[in-house]
Amino acid sequence: MGNAHVQTGGTASTPSTSARLLQMGVGRILTSSITQRVRYAETDGMGVVYYANYLIWFEVGRNDLFRHIGLPYAEVESRGIYVPVSEVRCRILLPARYDDEITVHTSIREVRSRKMVLEYRIERDRLLLAEGETTHICLNAEQRVTTMPEWMNAKLRD
Q: Which of 66, 84, 128, 146 could be a cystine partner for 140, CB 3.0 to 4.6 Å?
């Protein structure tokens, strides 16, 4: 199967995004990439990105991925389903600095009946700065763990 590709332009202050389906072995892996500049507010006094911002960038990537596969969070939540982070891991290999252009690559690693795992790679000029993953559980409107609805599961696996 070929690659499907969506691209929207961006500026220094507006992220540019792309999402694509990649054929990998037996199944497909869905990946989203979003590029943005490091803002001054995201850095410490030395111009180095404060560590917690990597987790925010994971969220930016996750929202971009979900939007491109037709599952914007607002719509998912309006249907009574919530997917909070239950576990997070982030390994910072090299620092990002003020005004760097970074790209956050997000992919779905695993989908199960009640959880999903997403992987992230943050790069500058194709140089890996950080990598990590988030695990999300599926909750219903009463905030109880529930089986992922079929309409959601199908989009995450397709």
A: 146
- Give the model confidence (pLDDT) of 100-111 as tens digits: 999 999 999 999
The two tokens of residue 82 are: 């919530």
Torsion of CA 9, 125, 134, 109, to 10 degrees: 80
Q: Active-site residue 44, yes or no?
A: yes
Q: Return the structure tokens found at 115.
A: 């959880």
Instruction: Please tell me which residue in 44, 64, 99, 158 is annotated as part of the active site.
Output: 44
- Asked if pLDDT for residue 51 goes beyond 90, the answer is yes
- Which superfamily does 4-157 belong to? Hotdog Thioesterase (3.10.129.10)
Q: What is the pTM of this model?
A: 0.82
Tally the C-alpha atoms within 13 A of residue 156's C-alpha that lie toward its C-beta. 23
For residue 42, give the nearest of 34, 54, 30, 33 by alpha carbon: 54
What tokens were used for 46? 């030395």
Domain boundary assignment for the chain:
4-157
